[in-house]
Fold:
Amino acid sequence: MKVFKFGGASVSGAGNIRNVKSILQQYTDGPLLVVISAMGKTTNALEAVVSAFYNGNKDEALRLFENIKGDHLQLCAELTPEPLPELSDFFTEVEWLLHDQPVRNFDYYYDQVVCIGELLSTLIIAHYLNCEGVGNTWVDVRDVMRTDNNFRDAKIDWAFTGKKVEIEILPLFDVHNLVITQGFIGATDENESTTLGREGSDYTAAVFASLLGTESQTIWKDVQGVMNADPKLYPGAVWISELNYREVIEMAYYGAQVIHPKTIKPLQNKGIPLYVRSFLHPNEQGTVIHNRKITSLPPIIVYKKEQVLIELTARDFSFVSEGLNSEVSQWFQQVKFKPNLTQITAISMLCVTDNLEEKLDQFAQSAAHLFEVHLRKGLHLLTIRHYNDSILEELTRGKEILLKQQTVETVQVVMR
Ligand code: ASP
Ligand code: MG
Structure:
């Protein structure tokens, strides 16, 4: 058995969905579970609907939702003349909600509305495939993927979900080799919809791979596989044919947007290889991520833009004796904020963070009791793993370097 995940870009528009069909047709000789995201930028569009609703702009929310609805209906009609009445049920569900007044917190409404993106995309694609003779079963993942009620960042109940997978998903493969379901969403024990965090579909696929003990997981993307840098930022980027789990976790930690960071652990636990392949060039091999020791990797380059350097200087020398860095981490925790880099000296501490105004303000307020606080904005954080002198020289040439940290494997530079 295999698990595939198709992201938003791979299913945006009728042409891409036809392409997905031709990929799937090559793999339906054995059991295959396919996890699909919302189409294109639908999740962002739905976020705008919830914000309008929550801010009391009901008409605006309904108007924005009308556009999303129109796009999906048009796409469905473009793919097949066969009607799909189930779509209306989902539309109505959201419209009812939008007519209410918000009485619960934002995150709750976010999940109830945003989950519709993946339900619509999978419903349309499953329907189209069935019309085209690619027999499949559509599953509402909310009947299977049980989570807690930590809306927008829900945690999976592995034991319950595992049982559901066994009872509800496994028998479906007796009917069709192909089962289609949603990524990113789940439900609580009270049947309220939840989401697992943006870009969470990779993770959903990994949960299924782990619970079903599949031979592999494949993520189909618009790039040839994992690259050593973002080609938009670094034109010399090259494709990497093989990585191990550890390297991918490190890359995600430093901010590379390759694969959702939670994806790796379930796969690593079961030793399931992860393939990252291009839906545009489905015959190319892509990148494999597994447990092997990998000896020669190119330098891996990660940029984080819009960084802020926070300089905390102790007002007196007590910093040295009292170890105030634990206080600093507490202030960060209080505002659910995490520095991307820290450096401690005898009387000062440097932290590099993302530029999140509100969190920075709150943090600075706490810190001002004990420290002089100085912020410098508009910086870049460059991380290079497996670096050499020449690449470091090339990428920092002409820049002002404010902070540098170096281990044998990794160098990080804050610069402008
Ligand atoms: N549709 C969701 C998002 O855009 C989940 C995903 O694509 O993985 O964040
Ligand atoms: Mg996506």
About this structure: The chain is about 40% helix and 25% strand. The two ends are 49 Å apart (CA to CA).
